[in-house]
Amino acid sequence: MERLIEILEEIKPEIDYTQCNNLIDGHHLDSLSILSLVAELEEEYDITIPAVEIIPENFNSADSLYRMIKRLQEED
Protein backbone atom coordinates (compact mmCIF):
# COMPACT_ATOMS: atom_id res chain seq x y z
CA MET A 1 0.00 0.00 0.00
CA GLU A 2 2.89 2.35 0.78
CA ARG A 3 4.23 2.07 -2.77
CA LEU A 4 0.74 2.71 -4.17
CA ILE A 5 0.51 5.96 -2.18
CA GLU A 6 3.94 6.97 -3.53
CA ILE A 7 2.78 6.36 -7.12
CA LEU A 8 -0.38 8.38 -6.53
CA GLU A 9 1.62 11.23 -4.99
CA GLU A 10 3.94 11.28 -8.01
CA ILE A 11 0.91 11.85 -10.25
CA LYS A 12 -0.98 14.36 -8.06
CA PRO A 13 0.99 15.33 -4.93
CA GLU A 14 -1.57 17.76 -3.50
CA ILE A 15 -4.13 15.08 -2.57
CA ASP A 16 -4.25 13.28 0.79
CA TYR A 17 -4.66 9.74 -0.52
CA THR A 18 -5.03 8.24 2.94
CA GLN A 19 -8.26 10.21 3.46
CA CYS A 20 -9.70 10.86 -0.02
CA ASN A 21 -12.40 8.43 -1.13
CA ASN A 22 -13.74 10.27 -4.17
CA LEU A 23 -10.73 10.53 -6.48
CA ILE A 24 -12.89 10.05 -9.56
CA ASP A 25 -16.29 11.25 -8.37
CA GLY A 26 -14.69 14.38 -6.86
CA HIS A 27 -12.75 15.07 -10.08
CA HIS A 28 -9.39 14.90 -8.29
CA LEU A 29 -7.98 12.68 -11.04
CA ASP A 30 -8.55 13.62 -14.67
CA SER A 31 -8.39 11.24 -17.61
CA LEU A 32 -4.69 11.88 -18.21
CA SER A 33 -3.90 11.19 -14.57
CA ILE A 34 -5.88 7.96 -14.73
CA LEU A 35 -4.01 6.82 -17.85
CA SER A 36 -0.69 7.57 -16.16
CA LEU A 37 -1.82 5.76 -13.05
CA VAL A 38 -2.90 2.67 -15.01
CA ALA A 39 0.47 2.52 -16.79
CA GLU A 40 2.39 2.93 -13.51
CA LEU A 41 0.32 0.31 -11.70
CA GLU A 42 0.66 -2.20 -14.52
CA GLU A 43 4.43 -1.78 -14.52
CA GLU A 44 4.92 -1.69 -10.75
CA TYR A 45 2.64 -4.61 -9.88
CA ASP A 46 3.10 -6.67 -13.07
CA ILE A 47 -0.62 -6.72 -13.83
CA THR A 48 -2.86 -5.84 -16.74
CA ILE A 49 -5.78 -3.57 -15.94
CA PRO A 50 -8.53 -4.25 -18.48
CA ALA A 51 -10.71 -1.34 -19.57
CA VAL A 52 -13.71 -2.85 -17.75
CA GLU A 53 -11.83 -2.38 -14.45
CA ILE A 54 -11.34 1.37 -14.99
CA ILE A 55 -14.47 2.41 -13.14
CA PRO A 56 -15.01 4.78 -10.20
CA GLU A 57 -15.57 1.89 -7.77
CA ASN A 58 -11.99 0.73 -8.37
CA PHE A 59 -10.34 4.17 -8.62
CA ASN A 60 -12.10 6.35 -6.02
CA SER A 61 -9.61 5.67 -3.21
CA ALA A 62 -6.21 4.19 -2.51
CA ASP A 63 -7.96 1.35 -0.67
CA SER A 64 -10.16 0.46 -3.63
CA LEU A 65 -7.16 0.65 -5.96
CA TYR A 66 -5.19 -1.64 -3.68
CA ARG A 67 -8.04 -4.17 -3.53
CA MET A 68 -8.25 -4.17 -7.34
CA ILE A 69 -4.48 -4.67 -7.64
CA LYS A 70 -4.53 -7.61 -5.23
CA ARG A 71 -7.49 -9.18 -7.02
CA LEU A 72 -5.82 -8.84 -10.42
CA GLN A 73 -2.59 -10.33 -9.06
CA GLU A 74 -4.52 -13.32 -7.72
CA GLU A 75 -6.32 -13.82 -11.04
CA ASP A 76 -3.04 -13.88 -12.93
Radius of gyration: 11 Å
Q: If you average the pLDDT, what whole number results?
A: 97
Which structural category fits the helices and strands?
Answer: mainly alpha
**Number of H- or I-type helical stretches:** 4
The poorly predicted ranges are none
Biggest pleated-sheet summary: none
Quote the distance from N terminus to C terminus.
19 Å
The helical percent reads 55-70%
Strand runs, count: 0
H-E order: HHHH
Approximately what portion of the residues adopt beta-strand conformation?
A: under 5%
Shape field: globular
Compact summary:
This protein has 76 residues and is an all-alpha fold. It has 4 helices and no strands.
Question: What's the layout of helices and strands?
Answer:
Elements: H1 2-11, H2 31-45, H3 56-59, H4 62-75
Helix pairs in contact: 1-2
